[in-house]
Every structure is written in C-alpha cells, then in structure tokens.
C-alpha cells in the first residue's frame, strides 16, 4: 500500500490524511487517559442503577460500542436516548440517579444539547464524551471526557470516531477495574499503526458494481459494523446496512444476493463462532463474503489482540479502502453530497 508522502500530501484528501493521524491521536489517550480515570473515579462513588446513551451517526455507533462494554463489564442495563422525546414531544425523562452519556464529535447539535440538559434536569448525572470540551454539549453536562483527536476537516469522521471508541473503553476499563482491557488499550496505538498497511481493496473492488452492501458482526463489533456501513453510504453513496450476525439470519437475509457483498467482522470472543457460521453458510449459498478474523478470514488482518479492542482496529483498513474507492470513482470523500461537518437536528 502506498503511503501519503510530503510530495503527495497536497493532493491527498483530508479524510486520507486524518486516517493516517489515527495512531498518533490514539496515543494521546493510551495507555490511559487521566480524564477517563477522573471520570471513572466519580462514577465509582455513586450507585448508578442504569445508563442512558445519546448520540447520532458515528457518535451513536461509539455509543453502541460503549453499551456492550458497560453491560459486559459492569452489568448495568443501558438504554438509548431518543432526543425527539425532549425536542419534539417536550417530555423530560425520569432518569433520577442514572448516568446519561452524550457522545458528540462537535458537541453542537441542538437536539443532543437539549437532551443532555433535560436529563440533568431530570436528575441524571450527565457526561459528555466530546472532541471539543468547550462545546455546548460539554457545558450542559456535569462531567466531560475529551477525546483529544485534534481538528478534523473531512465531513466523514475517522480519527474522532476511533478516539470516541477508545475514550469509551478507557472509561470502562478504569470504572470496572479491568486491567486486561487497559493493557489492550495500551497496545492500540501500535496496532492501529500496523493496521494502516492492511489492504482491503479486494472488498472495496467488489463494491464497484454493487447496488447495496451489507456489513455484519456481533457483540463488541456491532458499533464498528454500523460505522462502516455508514461510511459506505456517506462516502461512496452506496446504500449499506449493518446488522448483527444473528439479525442478518432473519428478515434481512432475504435481500442478500450475489450482487450485494457482505463484509463480516469477527473478534476472538464468545460471539466469534456465530459470525464464522454465518460466513460459512452464506458462502455455501454462493454469496460473496469478505471476512476479517478467524479461520474464515479472507482479508488481511493482524494477530488477534484484546477482543474488545480489535473492533476499533478494524475501522482503519475499512476507512482506507472506502476513501480510496471514493477517489477511484471520482467522488470527493471530504464533501459527501448534502452533508456538512456539523449536523444540526432538533
């Protein structure tokens, strides 16, 4: 794989350059974030009955990842917030004693800010996981966990997504006292750097004639699955759906065909076998499956790391393949049609 050099940097997309910045951005949060440790210490002093997560788009996918970490490491039930309950229906949630977490790269979307304020008014302890610690969402929250990704100019978020996942994992590692997870996070900057060399063009090449695409995985990988599907939609203008490997066997299976490639992501944890079986069954039916990880893997991958950290690493080769495929098609990966960097919804 060719790298961006000083001679080619001027013509490279912001997205490409920001993908290359991912290992350095991650190193600012690994092996541990002082902010994550301070926030976790505050959470540990409280008897929190449940957690509510709030975020849209890529930040919402980081929330899916955080949900699995909280439920598997802390045993707390987690719910997703619906901001329109506040902004549209003007109802204040009854969340006294709960932890309300808003995840936002910009921290400026009015609905997320309003939902955070309403949760605080409703008695929740509010936490903002944001790239801009001075943003309205951060100011509306009791606690702030900066992701320290640095400026990001491409509309398609990459390094801020990786650091949102990473900050979420650092928070849970400290909160749950999970030393193995903390060690896995410590290895992430180096693994993310190695992942820059993984060539997933065999997958992206099969997208060229596809009318739609599917991405699948399970557990800690589900947030990554949904994030990659989003990047296919916004950067390649390709309708893409991200499903758990369990869900894809149900209704969505009827729409998978030889024309719709499937990307299967598999981390080495208790969900691995079900992803392997799905990939095997789809291939037996003559369908196109590109798999990362495990015995059914067809895409370049690293030796397995911590299973809760590997889904973060899988974002990197997917991002690189999508950015390159966009440029091959003559699309601008920095300016997807109809989108802006800060999406203001109510």
From TrEMBL:
Swiss-Prot/TrEMBL keywords: Aminotransferase, Repeat, Transferase
Keyword Cytoplasm tagged: no
PROSITE patterns per record: SIS
GO molecular function, one term: transaminase activity
Keyword set includes Transferase: yes
Any GO BP annotation: carbohydrate derivative metabolic process
Protein name, entry field: Glucosamine--fructose-6-phosphate aminotransferase
Gene3D superfamilies in the record: Glucose-6-phosphate isomerase like protein, domain 1
SUPFAM superfamilies cross-referenced by the UniProt entry: SIS domain
Domain SIS stretches: 39-187, 203-331
């Amino acid at each position: 794989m060719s790298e961006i050099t000083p001679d080619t940097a001027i013509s490279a997309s912001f997205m490409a350059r920001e993908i290359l910045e991912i290992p350095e951005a991650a190193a600012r949060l690994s092996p541990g974030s002082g902010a994550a440790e301070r926030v976790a210490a505050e959470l540990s002093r409280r008897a929190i009955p449940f957690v509510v997560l709030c975020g849209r788009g890529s930040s919402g996918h980081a929330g899916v990842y955080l949900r699995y970490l909280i439920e598997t490491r802390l045993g707390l039930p987690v719910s997703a917030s619906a901001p329109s309950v506040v902004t549209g229906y003007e109802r204040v949630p009854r969340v006294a004693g709960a932890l309300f977490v808003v995840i936002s790269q910009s921290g400026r979307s009015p609905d997320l800010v309003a939902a955070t304020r309403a949760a605080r008014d409703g008695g929740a302890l509010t936490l903002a996981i944001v790239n801009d610690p001075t943003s309205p969402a951060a100011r509306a929250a009791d606690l702030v966990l900066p992701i320290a990704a640095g400026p990001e100019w491409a509309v398609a978020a990459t390094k801020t997504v990786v650091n949102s996942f990473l900050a979420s994992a650092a928070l849970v590692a400290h909160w749950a006292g999970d030393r193995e997870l903390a060690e896995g996070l410590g290895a992430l900057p180096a693994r993310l750097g190695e992942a820059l060399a993984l060539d997933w063009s065999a997958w992206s090449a099969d997208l060229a004639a596809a009318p739609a695409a599917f991405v699948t995985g399970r557990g800690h990988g589900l947030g990554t699955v949904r994030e990659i599907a989003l990047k296919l939609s916004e950067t390649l203008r390709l309708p893409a759906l991200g499903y758990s490997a369990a869900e894809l066997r149900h209704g969505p299976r009827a729409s998978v065909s030889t024309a719709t490639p499937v990307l299967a992501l598999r981390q080495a944890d208790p969900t691995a076998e079900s992803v392997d079986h799905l990939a095997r069954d789809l291939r037996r039916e003559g369908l196109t499956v590109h798999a990362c990880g495990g015995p059914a893997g067809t895409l370049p991958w690293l030796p397995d790391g911590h299973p809760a950290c590997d889904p973060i690493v899988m974002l990197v080769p997917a991002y690189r393949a999508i950015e390159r495929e966009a440029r091959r098609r003559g699309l601008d990966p920095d300016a997807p049609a109809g989108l802006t960097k800060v999406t203001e919804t109510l």
